[in-house]
TrEMBL record, chains A, B, C:
The keyword NAD does not apply. This is Uronate isomerase. Keywords: Isomerase. It is an enzyme of class 5 (isomerase). The keyword DNA damage does not apply. It holds the Pfam family UxaC. Belongs to the metallo-dependent hydrolases superfamily. Uronate isomerase family. One of its GO terms (biological process) is D-glucuronate catabolic process.
Length: 469, 469, 469
């Protein structure tokens, strides 16, 4: 069997027993998934997945980048012009190199998916590649393997998608109009209409004006348009916004200055410094709107997106070439926090790819400002060691209650239960260590485990209110 | 019982036994406290503490900030205008949220204080809040719970306070004139007369001139005034100076250039860059004086003080809103080290809130320059995980002998034995790991444990000389 | 006995047994040493080592700096004018302070050398200093303790030296012309002819012109001269180049701009910014040449060399005063990667002294770009904890196959087997943890262990081709 029941638990027998008990108490709790990138079409149209390669290989940038890093061309993975079109051949390429994933979270997630979703307990290898392919392909043709059925089977209570501010959310409307009981909520992600360096920024603002009837040629009209879209997202069930910025810089310009900056940006005359300033200003504007409408704000900064222009040009965005840069929050967030940091209505959840900020900045900030919460380990750090580092570095200063449980943050549907399982196990391991070293009583650990497994996410994202009709 | 005798020891049975033995050998050694923030009035006047809230809640910024971060208003903690004035109600607010501290060092320190100082072995909770309050209040009325009695009971050998350069040290004089045998020494902390951005800087310099009879209107007179105050502090028992700077930058300007800079600073015409340059220059001046008078120099850089202007304005300084920033020592300290780094008379103890500097910069610097020693983990990192990270990252390059044991650095009297206990346990755990993995023999570990528990502090701070009369 | 057979293995019994088995399977594999600083004269002339102090103390900057940091003058270690000349006295000074190395890798390496090379199982101490000295001195007079015999005894398969671009490699020629079967290959290290701030840069370029017959007065001729020297190094067996730069910055200037920059640099008119730009440009030029000639490129950035001018002036370079600075690769490497990053012919091995880059930048970069591999923990981090941090932080994102096994990187001959032993034990410990926590099967761990112990180095440095005649 690929999955050992004690995986990720500490080696020490006493500690392992405690971890096992803690995990057992949360293993079957429903999944709360407040931040992720599943395709709304899955939930709206409930289509069958085409084949194993399109389900598990091609869209998974963790998998693709690792294969590419060891010399596999994108084409062999079905990506780019003149790419391989036979999904079985793509699958074989993947299986032939499955050993590359030893020691990585992808390996844990894929083993988990193969076993728990498809009943395949033998580790993927060149020898069983075809047999596994056939077994998965056969299942994918069954109604039980369509997205909504998997949502139900995975025991998901609520899942948030991440949606452009310009999206009409018709897939969400489809869900709401259906007789399916799944709760799928959108998230307001306005990067494309906030970042002057985004592709088609001017056209995006034009479209934003058309959709909302606001004059996005003026600063005031532009802000009104955001308010209108946020209200629409709220109506559609959204409880949160999300902001992917190159840096965590915020700014708080006077009204006139902001309007002048907007004019430059709107006219396409923004310098790189203007663009950064505008993004910084807009974080504070978004925060002000969050105070008004109660939307939880998320900030995901510090990724240098599409680092290789060659890869982006030939194979597109999100191909595994987003590389973190060093960041610092302390000074960068101050303008925003000076405005809303002490406001009890505000909630800002912070994420980082620079782990040095956990103990140095994020825990001290979240351990002081009532508006701040710490998001779980993100992206490269959504792993056993990553979760351990987060808890070890953040807990002593911020405690548990200033964190918001787990986000799977994934576009790979079958990895959702796998990721939550890793998180629950890693947290059980961490809590068990606290118990064995007498920093926590076992009964306290048992009270904290379900908070980390779901309650803090529900509360942190304000998902406890009734879903939209 | 709240405190388990094996707390903080490794889970592995063999390692735990070794850790237990190592700890037992140092558990009862006297406490050397060479850096901290206890109130000199306590030692001079030996007053009774007013009530449990004023002893354990209101002045403890670790406790206050955590409660604030989860929505408790400062007012409910007795801070600010229209604050709660009933200490029992403040205590109840604290007790109601004691679960927030799970996994934090505050929890360990408070449990330790309640049990070892007040005999309260049941963990604080809403249910026992009143009973605990009454028990503590009753004790506080007894003479045995006054500061000097606690000093004696805590087995403190020497404690250093941190004092403004302008302080007349009359509380220290009271101690020295009393028949009490405690050793309380001041520390020269001249930030208020060195930092051009300090509140009332110009007036502070005027006062410095008055006190010393030096002309603090000139660079030379200003330096002389420092020399005079240092000599006074030395006479009063001080062995060290302390410098809390925003950055570790040092500078070594020519005499004329320094004098010109001083003139700008003195005239209140310093730009932000001038202020930073002046602070940097003054670190080197202080180092030169240390070479002359033998005072050990401490540098505590990298905290963004009073991050929230709203909190500072309404509730004052030191309310839990000091947030670390990234720092680097390698280039910043070079001007100072070029002057005094190789001088055998010089001793500079470095502290950091940016743990990335431990292995990257501090251990290599202290493992080379004879003038440098590493201070223990500071502030947010004065915790079990923080101490472990420090030892794991610093020891391999700097060894043990380039560190200076432990500082409790606290303004919370009852936490002193608790903090030293955590430190001794954490060091025992670290040493035991080295023994179990055969990086150290058990006999060597037994030789090192008392160094870490006291000798390195005595030696590092030059406290072994006889106390002032 | 100084060395315990279970040293560095995890405390937990089950995990330790797995680590022991893994280590046993690789303990006796030949040593592949693709990067280091042994003296080519040793291999060419095979001289006897003069005495214990000259073998084990004076040239070991790890040892010297630690003694200096605790107050020993360089002179007492045989360094500087009026230095101690009696090697026995130097040895005694070392032995008297051997306790300073408790908890450091030097202690592990020296214990290992004394025991496995000289049969001395009692730990060095003041009491046995003379006896150890005599025993070592006696051995050093025997032919079995000359460099080539030690190479054979240490079971070294191949060792790379690091050589100036201007070196005539005559010691390598001596090796190749001898009947000894050792494989010693040079490495092309052109810092002295690339860094405008290097001592004697202009003269170095003159010499480069003379040696190659190229006109190093022009940009084109200068590049041709590099090509010629690289070809010569290749003929002499080199498979790699190495670049020690203050930062990892790279640049990709247009041809005309680069030529103009070169003219300024060549004329000795380079500003500090010019010098940095030129170094940055040359990394990209070196990368282009690597694509052409197949030489593996190594980058070792981020050390502030000779931090104390006083030490450098009195005692020379490489005296333990090189201190790391914070660095970041993501933006810095982009110009180079935009040119060669996706080229399957390119291989660039990255090293760092700033461990924050492991998880944040290096693993994401190496886990995406096919041209990149991660070098092992370098310098201060070539230690048990350093190796653990590297594996814990890099593996989850980059896997094992994007790393290149171990480098001993040493100028201390006897430490070579000691360092490889520490590395093999640390990797066995890490793999065993993965097995115990069921992140890896034991059989997989057994497949990975020999990769880490040698195969990845052979492959990573393209050493599998037949040695030069």
């Amino acid at each position: 069997m690929a999955l050992h029941p004690d995986r990720l638990f500490p080696a020490d027998a006493t500690t392992r027993t405690i971890a096992r008990d803690l995990y057992a108490s949360v293993a079957d709790l429903p999944i709360v998934s407040p931040h992720g990138h599943t395709d709304p079409r899955w939930w709206g149209e409930n289509p069958a997945f085409a084949n194993p390669a399109e389900l598990l290989v091609i869209p998974d940038h963790y998998v693709v980048r690792m294969l590419v890093s060891q010399g596999t061309p994108y084409e062999a993975l079905g990506i780019g012009k003149e790419a391989e079109t036979d999904p079985r051949k793509i699958w074989r390429t993947f299986a032939a190199q499955y050993h590359l994933f030893a020691g990585t979270p992808s390996r844990l997630w894929i083993d988990h998916s193969l076993q728990t979703v498809f009943g395949l307990t033998e580790r993927l290898s060149p020898a069983n590649a075809d047999a596994h392919y056939d077994a998965i392909a056969e299942k994918l043709a069954e109604p039980d393997y369509r997205p909504r059925a998997l949502y139900d089977r995975f025991n998901i209570e609520v899942i948030a998608t991440t949606d452009s501010a310009l999206d009409d959310l018709h897939h969400h409307r489809q869900v709401q109009g259906s007789d399916w009981n799944g709760r799928v909520v959108p998230t307001y992600r306005p990067d494309a209409v906030i970042d002057p360096e985004a592709d088609g920024f001017a056209a995006n603002l034009d479209k934003l004006g058309e959709i909302t009837g606001c004059d996005t040629g003026t600063w005031q009209g532009y802000l009104d348009a955001h308010r209108a879209r946020r209200a629409f997202f709220r109506e559609m069930g959204a409880t949160a916004t999300d902001h992917g910025h190159p840096t965590p810089h915020t700014e708080n310009l006077g009204r006139a200055e902001a309007a002048t900056l907007f004019d430059r940006v709107r006219a396409g005359k923004a310098s790189a410094a203007d663009a950064e300033l505008f993004r910084a200003q807009m974080l504070t504007e978004m925060a002000r709107m969050s105070v008004d409408d109660g939307m939880v704000m998320q900030l995901h900064p510090g990724s240098f997106r599409n680092h290789s222009p060659q890869v982006q040009e030939r194979y597109g965005r999100d191909r595994g070439f987003d590389i973190p840069v060093p960041i610092s929050f302390t000074t960068a967030l101050k303008p925003l926090l000076d405005v809303v940091g002490m406001d009890p209505r505000m909630r800002l959840i912070l994420f980082t790819l620079d782990e040095t900020t956990y103990a140095r900045e994020l825990a001290p900030l979240a351990g002081a400002y009532p508006s701040l919460r710490l998001g779980p380990p993100w992206w490269f750090h959504d792993s056993f060691e990553g979760i351990r580092r987060f808890r070890e570095r953040a807990t002593e200063t911020a405690g548990f209650m200033n964190t918001v449980g787990f986000n799977d943050d994934t576009r790979a549907l079958c990895s959702i239960p796998a990721r939550h399982d890793v998180s629950r196990r890693a947290d059980a391991a961490f809590l068990a260590e606290l118990v064995t070293t007498h920093r926590l009583d076992e009964e306290e650990a048992h009270a904290i485990a379900p908070l980390l497994a779901g309650d803090l996410a529900r509360d942190g994202y304000r998902l406890t209110t009734a879903p939209a009709a």
